[in-house]
Amino acid sequence: MIAASLITEFGIALKKCRHCKVYLPTDYKVQEDTILQPDIIILCKTPGTKFIDFAPSLVAEILSPSTALRDRNTKYEIYQQQGIKYYLIVDINTNSIEIYELKNGQYQITLANADGSFDFSFEEECRVNVPLNEVWKE
Amino acid sequence: MGTAQKIIPHYTYEDYVHWEGNWELIEGFPIAMSPAPIPRHQLIGGALYAEFHFALKKCSHCRAYLPSDYKVKEDTILQPDIMVLCQTPKNKFIDFAPSLVAEILSPSTALRDRNTKYEIYQQQGIKYYLIVDINTNSIEIYELKNGQYQITPANADGSFEFIFEDECRVNVPLNEVWKE
Protein backbone atom coordinates (compact mmCIF):
# COMPACT_ATOMS: atom_id res chain seq x y z
CA MET A 1 0.00 0.00 0.00
CA ILE A 2 2.78 2.43 0.81
CA ALA A 3 4.60 1.92 -2.46
CA ALA A 4 1.27 2.44 -4.10
CA SER A 5 0.49 5.71 -2.35
CA LEU A 6 3.95 7.02 -3.14
CA ILE A 7 3.44 6.18 -6.81
CA THR A 8 0.20 8.14 -6.83
CA GLU A 9 1.79 11.18 -5.18
CA PHE A 10 4.66 11.21 -7.67
CA GLY A 11 2.31 10.39 -10.54
CA ILE A 12 0.08 13.36 -9.78
CA ALA A 13 2.97 15.74 -9.17
CA LEU A 14 4.77 14.72 -12.37
CA LYS A 15 1.77 15.30 -14.62
CA LYS A 16 3.04 18.81 -15.12
CA CYS A 17 6.43 17.64 -16.39
CA ARG A 18 6.78 16.58 -19.98
CA HIS A 19 9.54 14.03 -19.67
CA CYS A 20 9.68 12.64 -16.15
CA LYS A 21 7.43 9.66 -15.39
CA VAL A 22 6.94 7.14 -12.57
CA TYR A 23 7.48 3.44 -13.16
CA LEU A 24 6.52 0.37 -11.18
CA PRO A 25 9.30 -2.21 -10.66
CA THR A 26 11.04 -3.12 -13.88
CA ASP A 27 14.55 -4.35 -14.69
CA TYR A 28 17.29 -1.76 -14.25
CA LYS A 29 20.38 -3.21 -15.85
CA VAL A 30 23.26 -1.55 -14.06
CA GLN A 31 25.81 -3.75 -15.77
CA GLU A 32 25.85 -7.20 -17.37
CA ASP A 33 25.99 -8.95 -14.01
CA THR A 34 23.84 -6.55 -12.01
CA ILE A 35 20.11 -6.20 -12.59
CA LEU A 36 17.99 -4.48 -9.95
CA GLN A 37 14.26 -3.88 -9.61
CA PRO A 38 13.71 -0.81 -7.45
CA ASP A 39 10.22 -0.52 -5.91
CA ILE A 40 9.67 2.87 -7.53
CA ILE A 41 11.59 4.50 -10.35
CA ILE A 42 11.43 7.94 -11.96
CA LEU A 43 12.86 8.30 -15.44
CA CYS A 44 13.16 11.54 -17.38
CA LYS A 45 13.75 9.87 -20.72
CA THR A 46 12.20 6.88 -22.43
CA PRO A 47 13.93 3.59 -21.66
CA GLY A 48 14.66 0.72 -24.03
CA THR A 49 11.93 -1.78 -24.70
CA LYS A 50 13.14 -4.52 -22.36
CA PHE A 51 14.99 -2.86 -19.52
CA ILE A 52 16.37 0.43 -18.24
CA ASP A 53 19.98 0.90 -19.24
CA PHE A 54 20.71 4.34 -17.80
CA ALA A 55 20.64 5.83 -14.31
CA PRO A 56 17.11 6.76 -13.19
CA SER A 57 16.51 10.22 -11.71
CA LEU A 58 15.06 8.71 -8.54
CA VAL A 59 14.71 5.29 -7.01
CA ALA A 60 12.83 4.30 -3.86
CA GLU A 61 13.08 1.09 -1.88
CA ILE A 62 10.50 0.03 0.67
CA LEU A 63 12.37 -1.79 3.45
CA SER A 64 11.32 -5.30 4.31
CA PRO A 65 13.06 -7.58 6.81
CA SER A 66 14.62 -9.64 4.01
CA THR A 67 15.89 -6.65 2.01
CA ALA A 68 16.70 -3.95 4.58
CA LEU A 69 20.38 -4.74 4.91
CA ARG A 70 20.85 -4.90 1.15
CA ASP A 71 18.85 -1.70 0.61
CA ARG A 72 20.94 0.24 3.14
CA ASN A 73 24.30 -1.05 2.00
CA THR A 74 24.76 -2.81 -1.33
CA LYS A 75 22.05 -0.91 -3.18
CA TYR A 76 22.90 2.39 -1.51
CA GLU A 77 26.44 2.07 -2.83
CA ILE A 78 25.32 1.06 -6.30
CA TYR A 79 22.81 3.90 -6.62
CA GLN A 80 25.34 6.42 -5.35
CA GLN A 81 27.97 5.16 -7.75
CA GLN A 82 25.56 5.25 -10.68
CA GLY A 83 24.81 8.89 -9.99
CA ILE A 84 21.11 8.51 -9.20
CA LYS A 85 20.17 11.93 -7.85
CA TYR A 86 17.58 10.85 -5.29
CA TYR A 87 17.35 7.63 -3.30
CA LEU A 88 14.39 7.26 -0.96
CA ILE A 89 14.43 4.63 1.76
CA VAL A 90 10.94 4.00 3.07
CA ASP A 91 10.60 2.41 6.49
CA ILE A 92 7.10 1.10 7.05
CA ASN A 93 7.85 0.18 10.66
CA THR A 94 8.69 3.71 11.73
CA ASN A 95 6.51 5.44 9.11
CA SER A 96 9.43 7.44 7.81
CA ILE A 97 11.03 8.26 4.48
CA GLU A 98 14.72 9.05 4.36
CA ILE A 99 15.65 11.28 1.44
CA TYR A 100 19.20 10.84 0.16
CA GLU A 101 20.31 13.44 -2.35
CA LEU A 102 23.50 13.25 -4.34
CA LYS A 103 25.89 16.10 -3.56
CA ASN A 104 29.36 16.01 -5.08
CA GLY A 105 28.93 12.35 -5.85
CA GLN A 106 27.94 11.37 -2.30
CA TYR A 107 24.52 10.80 -0.81
CA GLN A 108 23.55 13.22 1.91
CA ILE A 109 20.46 12.74 3.98
CA THR A 110 18.17 15.71 3.42
CA LEU A 111 15.26 16.90 5.52
CA ALA A 112 11.72 17.24 4.24
CA ASN A 113 9.90 20.57 4.62
CA ALA A 114 8.08 21.34 7.86
CA ASP A 115 4.77 20.36 6.23
CA GLY A 116 6.12 16.93 5.30
CA SER A 117 6.53 17.69 1.61
CA PHE A 118 9.76 17.80 -0.37
CA ASP A 119 10.81 19.76 -3.44
CA PHE A 120 12.39 17.49 -6.01
CA SER A 121 14.25 19.06 -8.84
CA PHE A 122 14.57 16.82 -11.88
CA GLU A 123 15.97 17.40 -15.35
CA GLU A 124 14.63 20.06 -17.69
CA GLU A 125 13.00 22.38 -15.23
CA CYS A 126 10.86 19.64 -13.75
CA ARG A 127 10.48 20.85 -10.18
CA VAL A 128 7.77 19.21 -8.16
CA ASN A 129 6.58 19.46 -4.59
CA VAL A 130 5.57 16.03 -3.36
CA PRO A 131 3.60 15.65 -0.10
CA LEU A 132 5.51 12.59 1.12
CA ASN A 133 3.67 12.54 4.44
CA GLU A 134 0.40 11.83 2.58
CA VAL A 135 1.48 8.22 2.17
CA TRP A 136 1.07 7.51 5.87
CA LYS A 137 -2.57 8.59 5.88
CA GLU A 138 -4.41 5.33 5.57
CA MET B 1 11.43 -43.94 -20.99
CA GLY B 2 10.75 -44.05 -17.27
CA THR B 3 7.49 -43.35 -15.60
CA ALA B 4 8.90 -40.36 -13.71
CA GLN B 5 8.20 -37.88 -16.49
CA LYS B 6 4.53 -38.74 -16.48
CA ILE B 7 4.10 -37.54 -12.94
CA ILE B 8 3.02 -33.92 -13.16
CA PRO B 9 3.05 -32.25 -9.79
CA HIS B 10 -0.10 -30.53 -8.61
CA TYR B 11 0.92 -27.69 -6.32
CA THR B 12 -1.14 -25.84 -3.76
CA TYR B 13 -0.86 -22.61 -1.79
CA GLU B 14 1.12 -24.44 0.86
CA ASP B 15 3.87 -25.16 -1.68
CA TYR B 16 3.58 -21.80 -3.36
CA VAL B 17 4.33 -19.71 -0.24
CA HIS B 18 7.78 -21.25 0.01
CA TRP B 19 8.94 -20.49 -3.51
CA GLU B 20 11.50 -17.80 -4.07
CA GLY B 21 10.82 -15.36 -6.85
CA ASN B 22 7.57 -14.35 -8.43
CA TRP B 23 5.00 -16.97 -9.46
CA GLU B 24 1.36 -17.54 -10.20
CA LEU B 25 -0.39 -20.86 -9.75
CA ILE B 26 -3.30 -21.96 -11.95
CA GLU B 27 -5.01 -25.21 -11.04
CA GLY B 28 -1.83 -26.58 -9.53
CA PHE B 29 0.40 -25.52 -12.41
CA PRO B 30 3.16 -23.00 -11.60
CA ILE B 31 3.80 -20.06 -13.94
CA ALA B 32 7.02 -18.07 -13.61
CA MET B 33 6.59 -14.30 -13.58
CA SER B 34 10.22 -13.37 -14.23
CA PRO B 35 11.83 -11.34 -15.64
CA ALA B 36 10.17 -8.15 -14.48
CA PRO B 37 7.56 -6.64 -16.78
CA ILE B 38 9.05 -4.32 -19.41
CA PRO B 39 9.41 -0.60 -18.64
CA ARG B 40 6.36 0.53 -20.65
CA HIS B 41 4.18 -2.08 -18.93
CA GLN B 42 5.25 -0.55 -15.62
CA LEU B 43 4.78 3.02 -16.82
CA ILE B 44 1.17 2.38 -17.87
CA GLY B 45 0.54 0.23 -14.78
CA GLY B 46 1.72 3.03 -12.52
CA ALA B 47 -0.36 5.63 -14.35
CA LEU B 48 -3.54 3.53 -14.24
CA TYR B 49 -2.97 2.70 -10.60
CA ALA B 50 -2.55 6.40 -9.78
CA GLU B 51 -5.86 7.30 -11.51
CA PHE B 52 -7.77 4.69 -9.49
CA HIS B 53 -6.01 5.52 -6.24
CA PHE B 54 -6.77 9.20 -6.72
CA ALA B 55 -10.42 8.68 -7.75
CA LEU B 56 -11.07 6.30 -4.84
CA LYS B 57 -9.90 8.76 -2.20
CA LYS B 58 -13.53 9.90 -1.91
CA CYS B 59 -14.78 6.39 -1.11
CA SER B 60 -14.54 5.10 2.43
CA HIS B 61 -14.05 1.39 1.72
CA CYS B 62 -12.72 0.87 -1.80
CA ARG B 63 -8.98 1.06 -2.37
CA ALA B 64 -6.65 0.31 -5.28
CA TYR B 65 -3.92 -2.30 -4.83
CA LEU B 66 -0.78 -3.22 -6.71
CA PRO B 67 -0.06 -6.93 -7.35
CA SER B 68 -0.68 -9.08 -4.32
CA ASP B 69 -1.64 -12.74 -3.99
CA TYR B 70 -5.27 -13.38 -4.86
CA LYS B 71 -6.02 -16.91 -3.70
CA VAL B 72 -8.91 -18.07 -5.85
CA LYS B 73 -8.71 -21.56 -4.38
CA GLU B 74 -6.06 -23.83 -2.86
CA ASP B 75 -4.40 -24.58 -6.21
CA THR B 76 -4.96 -21.24 -7.95
CA ILE B 77 -3.16 -18.06 -6.90
CA LEU B 78 -3.12 -15.05 -9.22
CA GLN B 79 -1.48 -11.64 -9.07
CA PRO B 80 -3.51 -9.17 -11.11
CA ASP B 81 -1.59 -6.03 -12.14
CA ILE B 82 -4.13 -3.77 -10.43
CA MET B 83 -7.00 -4.58 -8.09
CA VAL B 84 -9.77 -2.62 -6.41
CA LEU B 85 -10.93 -4.08 -3.10
CA CYS B 86 -13.87 -2.75 -1.11
CA GLN B 87 -12.99 -4.59 2.09
CA THR B 88 -9.69 -4.98 3.91
CA PRO B 89 -7.93 -8.31 3.33
CA LYS B 90 -7.37 -10.03 6.65
CA ASN B 91 -4.89 -12.67 5.59
CA LYS B 92 -1.53 -12.66 3.85
CA PHE B 93 -3.47 -13.02 0.65
CA ILE B 94 -6.78 -11.88 -0.77
CA ASP B 95 -9.38 -14.59 -0.27
CA PHE B 96 -12.46 -12.92 -1.72
CA ALA B 97 -13.35 -11.64 -5.16
CA PRO B 98 -11.96 -8.15 -5.85
CA SER B 99 -14.37 -5.54 -7.19
CA LEU B 100 -12.09 -4.89 -10.16
CA VAL B 101 -8.99 -6.44 -11.66
CA ALA B 102 -6.86 -5.11 -14.49
CA GLU B 103 -4.28 -7.01 -16.51
CA ILE B 104 -1.77 -5.28 -18.74
CA LEU B 105 -1.11 -7.52 -21.71
CA SER B 106 2.41 -8.63 -22.50
CA PRO B 107 3.38 -11.11 -25.22
CA SER B 108 3.96 -13.88 -22.70
CA THR B 109 0.67 -13.38 -20.84
CA ALA B 110 -1.83 -12.14 -23.44
CA LEU B 111 -3.29 -15.52 -24.28
CA ARG B 112 -3.71 -16.41 -20.60
CA ASP B 113 -5.17 -12.99 -19.77
CA ARG B 114 -7.77 -13.23 -22.53
CA ASN B 115 -8.76 -16.82 -21.86
CA THR B 116 -7.84 -18.59 -18.62
CA LYS B 117 -7.94 -15.51 -16.43
CA TYR B 118 -10.98 -14.06 -18.17
CA GLU B 119 -12.89 -17.25 -17.34
CA ILE B 120 -11.64 -17.32 -13.76
CA TYR B 121 -12.50 -13.67 -13.10
CA GLN B 122 -15.95 -14.09 -14.66
CA GLN B 123 -16.61 -17.22 -12.66
CA GLN B 124 -15.50 -15.55 -9.43
CA GLY B 125 -17.98 -12.74 -9.98
CA ILE B 126 -15.47 -9.90 -10.29
CA LYS B 127 -17.58 -7.00 -11.47
CA TYR B 128 -15.02 -5.28 -13.69
CA TYR B 129 -12.14 -6.76 -15.65
CA LEU B 130 -9.95 -4.35 -17.58
CA ILE B 131 -7.64 -5.61 -20.30
CA VAL B 132 -5.01 -3.04 -21.11
CA ASP B 133 -3.24 -3.31 -24.45
CA ILE B 134 -0.04 -1.26 -24.50
CA ASN B 135 0.51 -1.94 -28.19
CA THR B 136 -2.74 -0.43 -29.38
CA ASN B 137 -3.11 2.02 -26.45
CA SER B 138 -6.54 0.72 -25.57
CA ILE B 139 -8.39 -0.46 -22.49
CA GLU B 140 -11.19 -2.96 -22.86
CA ILE B 141 -13.76 -2.71 -20.08
CA TYR B 142 -15.57 -5.96 -19.29
CA GLU B 143 -18.50 -5.60 -16.93
CA LEU B 144 -20.34 -8.51 -15.39
CA LYS B 145 -23.99 -8.66 -16.45
CA ASN B 146 -26.04 -11.68 -15.43
CA GLY B 147 -22.87 -13.56 -14.63
CA GLN B 148 -21.24 -12.94 -18.02
CA TYR B 149 -18.68 -10.34 -19.05
CA GLN B 150 -19.88 -7.83 -21.59
CA ILE B 151 -17.54 -5.39 -23.24
CA THR B 152 -18.65 -1.85 -22.41
CA PRO B 153 -17.53 1.33 -24.17
CA ALA B 154 -15.96 4.22 -22.28
CA ASN B 155 -17.54 7.66 -22.39
CA ALA B 156 -16.80 9.92 -25.35
CA ASP B 157 -14.23 11.83 -23.29
CA GLY B 158 -12.32 8.61 -22.53
CA SER B 159 -13.47 8.34 -18.93
CA PHE B 160 -15.63 5.62 -17.38
CA GLU B 161 -17.89 5.62 -14.37
CA PHE B 162 -17.29 2.63 -12.12
CA ILE B 163 -19.93 1.74 -9.57
CA PHE B 164 -18.52 -0.13 -6.61
CA GLU B 165 -20.06 -1.24 -3.35
CA ASP B 166 -21.39 1.18 -0.74
CA GLU B 167 -22.31 4.04 -3.04
CA CYS B 168 -18.76 4.33 -4.29
CA ARG B 169 -19.22 5.79 -7.77
CA VAL B 170 -16.10 7.12 -9.37
CA ASN B 171 -15.37 8.60 -12.74
CA VAL B 172 -11.89 7.50 -13.85
CA PRO B 173 -10.22 9.26 -16.80
CA LEU B 174 -8.79 6.08 -18.31
CA ASN B 175 -7.42 7.90 -21.37
CA GLU B 176 -5.04 9.86 -19.12
CA VAL B 177 -2.72 6.88 -18.96
CA TRP B 178 -1.79 7.22 -22.63
CA LYS B 179 -0.60 10.80 -22.29
CA GLU B 180 3.16 10.37 -22.44
Would you give an account of this structure?
The complex is a heterodimer of chains A (about 140) and B (about 180). The longest helix of chain A is centred in the N-terminal third of the chain and has 12 residues, at about 1-15. Chain A has 3 helices and 10 strands; from the N terminus they run αβββββααβββββ. Chain A has helices spanning about 1-15, 70, 75-80; strands spanning about 20-25, 30, 35, 40-45, 60, 85-90, 95-105, 105-110, 120, 125-130. Chain A has one domain (about 1-135): tt1808, chain A. In chain A, strand 7 (about 95-105) and strand 8 (about 105-110) form a beta hairpin. Chain A has about 140 residues and is an alpha+beta fold. With about 180 residues, chain B is α+β, with helices and mostly antiparallel strands. Chain B has a single domain (about 35-180), classed as Alpha-Beta Complex (tt1808, chain A), CATH 3.90.1570.10. Chain B has helices at about 15, 40-55, 110-115, 115-125, and strands spanning about 25, 30, 65, 70-75, 75-80, 80-85, 100-105, 130-135, 140-145, 150, 160-165, 170. In chain B, the strands form 4 sheets. In chain B, strands 3-6-7-8-9-10 form a 6-stranded mixed β-sheet. In chain B, strand 9 and strand 10 (about 150) form a beta hairpin. Chain B starts with 12 loop residues before the first helix and ends in an 8-residue tail after the last strand. The model of chain B has no long low-confidence stretch (mean pLDDT about 90). Chains A and B meet through helix 1 and strand 1 of A and helix 2 and strand 3 of B.
